[in-house]
Amino acid sequence: MIFDPILDLFRGKAITIPPLDGALRPNTALDEAEVVAGLPSPDNLVWLDGRAVCSSGAAVIALEHGHPRQIAEFPAEVTALAVSPKGKLAVATDDGKLSEGGHEVQLPGGIGCITALAYGPDGALWLANGSARHPASGWVADLMEHGATGSAWRRLPGQEFHKVAGGLAWPNGLLPDPGGITVSESWKHQLIRLEGGRMTPVLRHLPGYPARLSPAAEGGAWLAVFAPRTRLIEFVLQEKHYRYDMMAEVPRDYWIAPALRSGQSFLEPLQCGGIRTMGIHKAWSPSRSYGLVVKLSPDFAPVASLHSRANGHRHGVTSVIEAGGRVLIASKGGDAVLGTGGAA
Amino acid sequence: MTFRERLQQWRYNLIPDHVIGEILQKRWTDNAIPFLALVIVVAGFGTAIPGFFNPGSLQDSTRQLGEFSLVVIGLTVVMLGGGIDLSVGSIFALATFASVACFFLFNLPVWVAFLAALATGGLFGAANGYLIGYLRLRAFITTLVTFIIGRAVYDILVVNFGSAVQLSDAMSDVWDFVGDGTFLGLSVALLSAIVLAVITHVVLTRARMGWHVQAVGGSRRSAHNAGIKVRRTVFLTYVFSGLCSGAAGFLIATRLSGAGPGTGLGLEILALTAAVVGGNSLGGGRGSIVKGIMGAIIVLVMTNGLIRLGYGTGTNQMVLGILLAVAVTIDIRWLKNRHKVLNEVYVAPVYLKMGETQSAAPGSGTQYELNNRLSQADAIGLGELEGPEDVILDRDDNLYCGTRHGEIVRFFAPDYKRSEVFAHVGGFPLGLAFDRDGNLLSCVGAMGLYRITPDREVTRLSAETRRSLTSIQDDARLRDPNDLDIAPDGKVYFTDSTKRYDAHDWTLDSIENRATGRLLVYDPATGKTTTLLDGYRYTNGVTLAHDNKSVLFCESWACRIHRYWLDGPKAGTAECLIRDMPGYPDNINRASDGTYWMAWLGMRTPSFDLSLRHPGMRKRMARRLPQDEWLFPNINTGGVVKFNDRGEILQTYGDLSGQSHPMVTSMREHKGYLYIGGILNNRIGRYRIEGADPAWDANTAYWGKRA
After folding, report:
1. pLDDT tens track for A216-235
2. Which of residues 342-361 of B touch A (CB under 8 A)?
3. How far apart are alpha carbons B619 and B350 in whole angstroms?
4. Residue of chain A nearest B602, judged by CA positions
5. Domains (ranges, CATH) in chain B?
6. What global pTM score does this model have?
7. d(CA A170, CA A185)
8. B692 reaches A (C-beta below 8 A)
9. Do B630 and A272 touch (CB under 8 A)?
């Protein structure tokens, strides 16, 4: 409309986010999925020695026929896991340390926020460093500061780590392949591909913040989206004064920010659509947390998705793996590891 | 407080932004753009043309304006009725010829000439009206046809009789007076235009016929459904337009004493431009005579001015065309977007720094610490009820509540399984109270204070108070009457929560946080309502203190309880009893042990409290996000709090799970039980209070034993 530029002076531009439509059409698949194990904050899932292993707080837990058993414990929260082609378990913790097969690995300066680990088919260990300013547990603060200080690193067999890419907005998932690697860049809601020193976006405008990537059995990939974008949060991200005052004065759990779980306390922010009316919490209502797993085709186009909507509980999915004939999903906000039979 | 924050406070608390939204709500703002154009045009040409404001020159211009305005008034009425009349030019010309012929060729008196002009106009108008109104042809094509035929007839007549008219020697003083004379310094043309404008305006805005015209223009179908004779109304608008053109034709005949080939040529374009530039909608239903007159002045000043500045006809036509295009664009865009602009600018937040509060979080160990007791309440009316804001019990233990459908529902004692609609009031019944005679009084949101007798007769007691002097929006009307209580002398103390939002938009008032809540009293002896206090942030619950010497009322968005003294040395003044609570208080009621119950409709959140100190952020939020995305106080968790006359907090009851009673807007103690209502809930809760007097009934406490 021709008067828009004039009217914008008085009203400002509308803030919009990508819709949940097409392959991302909402369903309740996550809420209906079977609970494989109830664990506090299950995070990174890997497949080790024919069983699923996942991190939970500072512990690493093996899930054997639905019985969780602790196999290791660390002094700080575990932030990433990976299994090498030879079957060694690499573990990163929130204090910025990395161990491989039980031995601590010397890291170069600048790595202190390991959000994801992955071994390439050539045996190289890839590492995502979320931010240069915050530990992995400080992701909310990094988002609120518009952080773009993350980096991706690679260690070829027998060599030292070296930086492949810098200036990333919280790299949070890695999917190496023979030619290069695909990285999820959370704060830019996109997947990028690093290949031969070039960085190209392969999937943009996600309706949430992407977390870890893993290969799907029949080609393509699984993407965990750990929190939704909401228009209020996008708005607050543009409101500098309010945002900095909020970071200074409001406890972090009660920020207007994405979260892995919500509705736990009456001190959390509430949006109009989230008001419980006539006993109903509306599924479509804006929410700080959401459960979303996306299946991607080999060329990284979404083809299917599993959801837990605003009124569901299986929120904050940070990791998905497909192994042993089924898809395992770690709902960190829902305190459960879920399983669905094969493809969604 | 930082300098920036103080600047914000000044900016948002001292500059009355809300005025813009309130002015935009007024219908007369539609006139603002044409009026501005009028001022610019008159001032512009007035300075560019020397002698523009000379009496002689002005006399000439106004005479022309008078004739032109008559035509425009007629066309405006047609457009208001949803039509268009392109034939005004040819009707005008034919009417001119009719009067000229009567006067000069047939030597008939002036009044016959006038009637002949009117008859010509009326006849052609009736033809238009019949074809469009009754035969339902397209207005545009039909009047185009009338225009072509009328013009052709006129051309033939002028060629054949033009010279005969010029050779005639008919004379009349009346004719000359109408054409050249003045009355009180005003020409006859201008006077008749003024008289007609006033009459038409009054008819359009005050009379049944005028309302019918606007209704038909606004929506033909709705008008038909409402029983209006649509066809006849349309017919009459064209007749009226024809008569107006006829009258104007007579006036120009007297002024020019002749009829030439140029008479009325292009008049339909001029008139149409005038009507549209004035702001009359081409779609019908919206417009006024004043707009038409403004448009007429703009167009006439512009065309005459351009000629006097030496521009040719081509330029003139082009300017008119551009003017018409701009006016039509603005008309359509403005009509379409006005409510959007209004929506975006209406919310005008103010700055507020909330006081530090004690935590109500479980485990905090404070007096406000919430628990999960209310989740054990039994549900009454689950799944049947929608929105019981307040609940009350009568002497026979029956339970009453309002619903969002505008009904008062009664649940029968003793098990409250059976219910009936006790009375239908409309609006949204909120606060409830029984008076001495067992009548149920209710504050009905969006309506006023109502009384329902035991035999279900509904009477309005009050819907207005005195208007405040500086109000733009009429604040005499009660917008959101919320809760009430009745004093022993029968006076009803009640609150009207906000002047800015309607009852169903009550949550939006929390975003704005402007202090417009009132405490009012209704006196049954005089039937008058008086404003006792004004300027509180959402006045809500009201109760009389146990000693009847003061009224307790709460200020929801400020999280405070106030006491208004009725008696004693401080009578007529208010003081704050409890401040800085962690929850937003709603209704207040008496408890059996001489203390009080207060409902919390929601809880403060740190992020919302902070946003109250960032009014600019809230304003941008209201403009840039859809309402469902707006940040609200947390009204998904509430509770019930007991306090005493000294303002000490004694007990709290909450439902942290949010399953049964997320938001609590009222509670009523009755015979050992607490009955709990919530404006957004689908049930009433019934909770057994430990240690409460099992015989205590508020009706007895207020009005004594049953007579």
Report:
1. 988 899 999 999 999 999 99
2. 344-345, 360-361
3. 9
4. A266
5. 60-300 (no CATH), 373-465+477-703 (2.120.10.30)
6. 0.82
7. 6
8. no
9. yes
